[in-house]
Amino acid sequence: MDPLIDFNGIPACRLALDDGSQALVALHGAQLLSWTPGGQEERIYLSPDADFSGTRPIRGGIPVIFPQFGTQGPLPRHGFARNLPWRLEEVRHDRKEKFATALFSLSDSEVTRQVWPHPFRAELTCCLGEGRLDLELEVSNPGDAAFAFTAALHTYLRVQEVEECHITGLHDQPYTDQSSGRKARDPALELTVEDEIDRIYHGLKRPLLLSEPRRSLAIHMEGFPDAVVWNPWEHKCAALDDMPLRGFRHMLCIEAAAVTQPVQLAPGDDWHGRQTLVCL
Fold first, then answer.
1. Active site residue: 154, 196, 212, 250, which one?
2. Is position 171 annotated as part of the catalytic site?
3. What is the average per-residue pLDDT within 38-52?
């Protein structure tokens, strides 16, 4: 069966398990658009007003941020990886072990070298399990000179009501508020979101837990030392033409990131970072 389907006019890879679990990854940006664990509700927020023309980022899902996070450098915001077509290299289903994987790749081209003059190869592996989703980003340097980059998996989680969510695992973690530039440590045992939030938490050493009424999600990160927590809230959401006015109430970004210290990659070396989401 062909794993590629048409989703809003763009090609996407569909993964499915016998228990009803499904994931959908667009070739545009290798961006995960949907994850539905078997017998459960959708866990990824995709804006109903998202643009699928291929001319701008898709609002929601899990965009791949590479080789620049935000505006922390000379490239366009969040780099170029999320706006380019990736190649689907492999799809594999293992019914016995109850998982399905898809591998996507992106290499340097004339387009990328015009803004970032480095040979590279990036691979994104999406692994769908029962009640579990793993995304792994690997970057390799096939060139003869070192380069540095920042990266993230910009995960938009679908929540029932953002003000009823609690995040544990951030207590006493240092963070930078990206809106004000203020640096502090989080004093709360549980972080609740009741207003705009845009923080980079540095040097995480433990997993996070997103708790909602009647369900929870464990978030594990490996290779990504930072986490970004973001919700635009009412006024900034209203300024986004690809988000509904009340869309902010049903999404919360908890992003695996390598932002504070750029990754230095020597010739011939590679780096990988993984984010794992587990339903509890």
1. 154
2. no
3. 96
